[in-house]
Amino acid sequence: MAPILKRKKFIDVKRPQNTADQIVCPACKKELEKLEVVINKYVCYECGSYFRVRTSNRIKMVADKESFTPWFEEMEFKNPLDFPEYEKKIFVAREKTGLKEGVTVGEAKIYGESVVLGVCDARFLMGSMGHIVGEKIASAVERATELKLPVILFCCSGGARMQEGIISLMQMAKTSAALKRHSDAGLLYVPVLTDPTTGGVTASFAMLGDIILAEPGALIGFAGPRVIEQTIGQKLPEGFQRAEFQLEHGFVDAIVERKNLKKTLYQILKLHHKNEGFANFADGTDFVFKPTELMRERAAKSRSMSAWEKVKSVRSTKRLASVDYMEAIFDDFMELHGDRCYRDDPAVVGGIASLCGQPVTVIGVHKGKDLKDCMKHNYGMPSPEGYRKALRLMKEAEKFHRPIITFVNTSGAFCGMEAEEGGQGEAIARNLYEMSGIKVPILCLMIGEGGSGGALALAVGNEVWMMENATYSILSPEGFASILWKDGKRAKEAAEVMKITAQDLYDLKVVEKIIPEFGGANEDALFDIAMFMKYHMKKFLEKYSKMDGCKLAEDRYQRFRSF
Question: What pLDDT digit, counting tens, does each position of 257-288 carry?
Fold first, then answer.
């Protein structure tokens, strides 16, 4: 459900009282002041539902003033099937909307950032995709590729244009092929899905973005509700195919309120600036970390813990989580969702951020902070969708030359029936396979439990660092004792012989650095730990920025080859 926006009071605005200045919300049926709706960016101030937006207003909302230059406005209309009355329909649509076709494309700026911008308009034959729509989109993407510009496309369509039959169908392949070339050139594409986005548009350019955004409550699907009901007689539940449904099922990265859309697009553009090297500390930060005497005292207390005490310590919900470090270390973090296949796994949190001005991809396993939060995040046990989401983000990082930083804290991969049905083993194997060859620096931090292959699937790095009280093992001490000694009660004894502590693994050369916890990884120590990490992350990026992509992958290969 779209968020409810409270009615705002506007002063010094004269509101004419005639009925022409009143509109009715199609969702809540309440009579609204048209002027207030416009000021509220065409969102009902009573129920929060979104009005559809015409092209000119959409451009005003996201593009800098007078920065939009339209392209390809004059394209020859054809009636490929000689469909009766088709020319008349086009003429009427042009007269009614003032548009030449169902999509408008051109170059614009968003807070000074140059982009190719496209806007589909539902008023023109429901934004259906005919040959001119497909040609304009393909041509705009091709020009964007030549100019090395990102593409932002507001999608709104009922699907293929029936009057053009198979020719309309061909536009799906044409637009998709143009976007493939744009992507192969290392360029950014962001579709914004608005109400409705269905049919052949959904099955082509709408769902091919590097980052896919959606407006609240937008209908998004291949076969629309009416088609489904009339074709197979299936009655759909409330909320089915809405933006929130698509987010939960892993098909969109974020739902963005209209009032935040321009700012969000700018943030995405800024985090996708093309960097020649990896250590591009654009803000000029000369960050220095100096431990204090209090920090040294806290660190000394941690070193006396036994292996079993460390096992118990990392399992505490009081322990700092990956999201805590992400918030403390990075700027402009934007969480991205979904594996684009089935679901968004809340056990894995990932997105893009900046470290001292350098864009990075950040991924972490999140266990939860209390019982309710732990249940929501499945106690930090990723499902196949979580590993596939992480891999999607890593491959996107490789495309845009962004270093990857992972925070690992999991007792292991989820072992339920649904995980096996989803291909848990394949998902873990695929991550190991792909991470070994990724051509950007990868830094992995073991911040809590590192349980078996479920942890390793996010820890194939050029370097692996480990917090001093963290553990990293083939499986839990309880499982180890049960398998080898047939007695799970000997877990404490197993913890001592398994060599699972940071010092053990540093001696075995499994990890390159031990991160001090300054008395325990809790809220009191967050700032100290985060600043230590941030300082050494910067040094890591400076070191690995000297390697090209092939050398980075070879370095990672040799690291694991040596074991």
Answer: 999 999 999 999 999 986 545 555 444 445 55
Location of structure tokens 């744009």? 182
Whether the bond between 196 and the residue before it is cis, its omega within 30 degrees of 0, is yes
414: region left, alpha or beta (phi > 0 left; psi from -120 to 50 alpha): beta
pTM of the entire structure? 0.90
Q: Is-contact 196 238, C-beta < 8 A?
A: no
Q: With H, G, I as helix, E, B as strand and everything else as coil, classify residue 71.
A: strand
> What is the rounded distance in angstroms from the CA atom of residue 491 to the CA atom of residue 472?
15
Dihedral of CA atoms 520, 525, 526, 529 in degrees, nearest 10, equals -80
- Output the DSSP codes for 418-465: HHHHTTHHHHHHHHHHHHTT-SS-EEEEEEEEEEHHHHHTT---SEEE
Amino acid at 45: Y
Instruction: Summarize pLDDT for 344-390 with one digit per residue, the tens.
Output: 999 999 999 999 999 999 999 999 988 999 999 999 999 999 999 99
Nearest Cα to 335, choosing from 320, 319, 323? 323
From residue 210, how far is each of 48, 253, 394, 484 by CA, in Å? Answer: 28, 9, 12, 47
